[in-house]
């Protein structure tokens, strides 16, 4: 245990080299998507999961674990702690992720709930009347004037929102395409359920019902 403390102290007090990131990767300090370990001496102290992401140049945003799983949240908590101590460097996208409360839990109305983790609210999948017929709310379906459509409440009325194109099916299984889509459409700022942009950005949550593979509890 004393040896562990010594290694952490060295990592925190030893200045990084000005001509590179200190990881020995030859990146010259250039920004990369995956986390960068600034001090190789502490590598053996990292979890297997974080080492895997570093070695395979996988960003935290593109985490290999199922979103919301204990392995995923543990990885975020560990990375946040190391980043705050200056032991790892992360990209701007991962930095924004670590600045959230993802990985923490609070008690809300008698139930322990995760913070900053997009969740599918099954209670909202209720029925309503739209132009004389019963429809399901907040449940995207294929078809309509575009690739998909969904019925939502807009004040006291029910609104049909058409969105998306056939190209979304190809993008959903491509990490780079998903990230580009989320960045280009500012998905993190899409909050209005009555707009096509909101549903296009949140489509991965409903992937299974639309025949696009497993659900992804996250944005693009």
Care to describe what's here?
With 220 residues, this protein is of the alpha+beta class. It has 2 domains: 2-106, no CATH class; 122-206, no CATH class. Helix content is 29%, strand content 16%. The protein is built from 7 helices and 9 strands, in the order αβααβαβββββββααα. It has a 3-stranded antiparallel beta sheet with strand order 7-8-9. The two termini are 41 Å apart.
Key terms:
220 residues; alpha+beta; 2 domains; three-stranded antiparallel β-sheet; two-stranded antiparallel ribbon; 7 helices; 9 strands; 16% strand; elongated
Shape by Cα distribution: elongated
Q: Between the first and last Cα atoms, what is the distance in angstroms?
A: 41 Å
Number of domains: 2
Number of strands: 9
Quaternary structure state of the chains depicted: single chain
Judged by helices, strands and strand pairing, the structural class is alpha+beta
Please outline the major beta sheet.
Answer: 3 strands, antiparallel
Helix content: 25-40%
What is the radius of gyration? 21 Å
Order of helices and strands: HEHHEHEEEEEEEHHH
Total DSSP helices: 7
**What is the beta-strand fraction?**
15-25%
Please state how the strands of the largest beta sheet are arranged side by side. 7-8-9
Question: Which whole number gives the mean pLDDT?
Answer: 77
Note poorly predicted spans: 14-32
How would you briefly describe this protein structure?
The protein is an alpha+beta fold.
Set out the fold topology:
Blueprint: H1 2-13, E1 36-37, H2 48-55, H3 70-84, E2 88-89, H4 92-98, E3 105-108, E4 111-114, E5 127-130, E6 133-136, E7 141-142, E8 148-154, E9 157-163, H5 167-171, H6 175-184, H7 196-201
Antiparallel strand pairs: 1-2, 3-4, 5-6, 7-8, 8-9
